[in-house]
Amino acid sequence: MDIFKIIAIALLTCVATLIVKQVKPDFASLVTMAGGVVILLMLVDYINQIFDVLNYIVEKTKLSPGLFSIVLKIIGIGYLTEFTANICNDSGSSSLANKILLAGKIIILIMALPILTNVIEIIVGILP
User: Fold this and answer.
1) What distance in Å separates the CA atoms of residue 15 and residue 43, rounded to the nearest whole number?
2) Residue 115 near residue 71 (C-beta atoms within 8 A)
3) SS3 of residue 64 by DSSP
4) Count of C-beta atoms within a 10 Å radius of residue 104
5) What does the DSSP 8-state code read for residue 84?
6) How far apart, in whole angstroms, are the C-alpha atoms of residue 82 and residue 77?
7) Helices 44-61 and 65-90, axial angle in degrees (round to 10)
8) pLDDT per residue over 7-53, tens digit each?
């Protein structure tokens, strides 16, 4: 199972970060980011499987591809902001991490407005 490989890489990255932090503290964040990138690369096949299933759902339900694309972008922004904020927290910049999370939430809200508008139009169309 890939989860055991991912856990092993994460633990090795943590140990390597601790060792590097003692010798060259400036490079500790780079080691952490490198481990995170390796883990993300291992997840590419799983992410493709998710997209395939979601595309299948869109085809079968006849949902608007535009709305579907917005939902995927929102999910991506959520994961990217969380990932980036965690890196900032790990490197001791919790204030910057909080600002990244706030920016992500605002961008997600702006991107979700067309979906909210469509839902309101549907509700108004159902009401007498």
Assistant:
1) 22
2) yes
3) coil
4) 19
5) H
6) 8
7) 150
8) 999 999 999 999 999 999 889 888 988 998 999 899 999 989 988 99
